[in-house]
């Protein structure tokens, strides 16, 4: 089975990245990585992996605002751009998304399959040279979340 994920692709983020940081908008960039997708693929097959991937994206899309943008970064990684998400609220908002994914799941061939996600949050800094600098920090924060036990959120300051 092939799964169509209706989300914006990476080049669009790279083109638009600078615009998200203009005007002091306080755009949060959230790197999202699915936890244990390889184990799901190995245990239940790639069709189940595709289903849980789609379920995860659909669950997150149901949580974010209409003006937020979700981009496929690669594999099972996504970036969410949330203009106007204040830094003091970012972790609690993302924790709600993490919880929603953890509580969702799919039924596949008589098996209930669920997964979790790890998220890293970053914001543009005045000294950023490239639009992807903010993504690099979000990626580092996401890996801290994974190394800290997965199913978590980390903020890059």
Description:
This protein is α/β, with parallel strands linked by helices and 157 residues long. The protein has five helices and eight strands. The longest helix is centred in the middle third of the chain and has 18 residues, at 46-63. The protein is elongated and about 50 Å long. The protein has helices at residues 10-20, 37-44, 46-63, 87-103, 133-147, and strands spanning 8-9, 28-35, 69-74, 77-82, 106-108, 111-113, 116-123, 153-155.
Keywords:
alpha/beta, disordered N terminus, 157 residues, elongated, two-stranded antiparallel ribbon
SSE order and pairing:
Elements: E1 8-9, H1 10-20, E2 28-35, H2 37-44, H3 46-63, E3 69-74, E4 77-82, H4 87-103, E5 106-108, E6 111-113, E7 116-123, H5 133-147, E8 153-155
Parallel strand pairs: 1-3, 7-8
Antiparallel strand pairs: 2-4, 2-7, 3-4, 5-6
Number of strands: 8
- What is the spatial order of strands in the main beta sheet? 1-3-4-2-7-8
What is the string of SSEs from the N terminus onward? Answer: EHEHHEEHEEEHE
Shape: elongated
Instruction: Report helical residue fraction.
Output: 40-55%
Structural class of the secondary elements? alpha/beta
Q: Treating each run of at least 4 consecutive H or I residues as one helix, how many helices? A: 5
Instruction: Give the N-to-C terminal Cα separation.
Output: 41 Å
Q: Give start-end ranges of low-pLDDT stretches.
A: 1-12, 14-19
Cα Rg: 15 Å
- The overall pLDDT average reads 88
The biggest beta sheet reads:
6 strands, mixed
Strand content: 15-25%
């Amino acid at each position: 089975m092939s799964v169509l994920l209706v989300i914006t692709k990476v080049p669009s983020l790279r083109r638009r990245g600078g615009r998200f940081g203009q005007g002091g908008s306080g755009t949060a960039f959230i790197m999202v990585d699915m936890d244990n997708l390889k184990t799901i693929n190995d245990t239940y097959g790639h069709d189940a992996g595709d289903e849980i991937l789609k379920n995860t994206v659909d669950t997150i899309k149901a949580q974010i605002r209409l003006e937020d943008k979700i981009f496929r970064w690669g594999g099972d990684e996504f970036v969410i751009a949330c203009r106007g998400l204040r830094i003091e609220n970012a972790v609690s908002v993302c924790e709600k998304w993490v919880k929603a994914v953890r509580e969702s799941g799919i039924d596949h061939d008589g098996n209930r399959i669920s997964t979790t996600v790890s998220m890293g949050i970053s914001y543009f800094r005045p000294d950023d040279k490239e639009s992807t600098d903010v993504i690099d920090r979000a990626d580092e924060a996401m890996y801290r979340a994974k190394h800290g036990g997965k199913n978590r959120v980390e903020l890059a300051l």
